[in-house]
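Subject: mismatched residue count in predicted assembly?

I count 349 residues in my input, but I want to confirm that the predicted structure covers every chain. Input:
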Amino acid sequence: MSEDPRRETRIPLVQMAIVAFVASAIGIAAGVAIEWFPEDASTQAGPIDRLYDVLIWSSVPIFVLVTMIVLFSAWKFRMRPGEEQLDGPPIHGNTRLEVIWTAIPAIILVLLCAYAWIVLVDIEEARADEMRVNVVGQQFAWTFEYPQADGEPIKSTQLYLPVNRPVRFYVKALDVIHDFWVPAFRMKIDAVPGIETRYRVTPTRLGTYPVVCAELCGLGHAVMRAQTRVVTPAEFNTWLAEQKAPAAATGEDGEVDAKRLFTEGNGTATACGACHTLADAGTSSQTGPDLDQSLAGKDAEFIEQGIVAPDAEIASGFQAGIMPKNYGDTLSDEELEALVKYLGEVAGK
Ligand code: CUA
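Triage response: the counts match. Full output below for your records.
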């Protein structure tokens, strides 16, 4: 029986324990059943998802306990009409209670931290036969570089990885902070100008997964995406060999296939068709202006400026700063010339 001078309240401990148990069971079942994450596609994903489940198991009962005490107190001990001037019973501390409510959370926290640390050491462990891939972030595109023993690194706007081969990413940024994230791998890290950040992943599942920029980096942040293609080692080697050959859009004779350049890019320059609609090329993205409208009847000078200095003149309804400003560098002179000629011929037709 309580000493409260205002009223006596029996605390129904047994009933509360039953309610807490049922609510916790429902909360944990729901928390574990919900698919919080996309398909897991790396050896790192399993331990990270398990850690998440352990956090649900340990935090749901604590949430239920705290919420129940708050709700019960608000219900049983709330102020009633006429009690405005009353004060609660004086309390001068309860050493045993304070030791208990300090020690138990401290033990839970230390255990969870130790477990999380073990998981971290495990997923960051170096593996034999690691492949190095450099990741470069800039407003608003990713470039992936595969260093070659004999010469220049191979550059690609798509991330190709052979399945089951450990990879170590070396991540850089050219302008502002970005964040290299492949949700299916679960790992992410900031790309910071001036330093190189790293992490390891071993892809375990064939398929195509999005690469996402996870750091607000400007107007084009939301479109700063690429694809990860996890392929068989044989497919990877074929792809790598193709990249070593002259750009696909440039034929053996040096002739540039401008339509192909438009729809596929050249390995360094992102494909125009990834963001622009152009009927002749069969592309329909609306990230940037519809070129059949914005370039129809324009002269070569206007079209070239639109490619190499995209912010000089902005189509109505669109914002500056979204289209990469590096096409002057990533396209060869021949490619640029062919692209301008092609767009002048087909836009609006
Ligand atoms: Cu790059 Cu957000």
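The chain has a mean pLDDT of 88. Marking this ticket as 'not a bug'.
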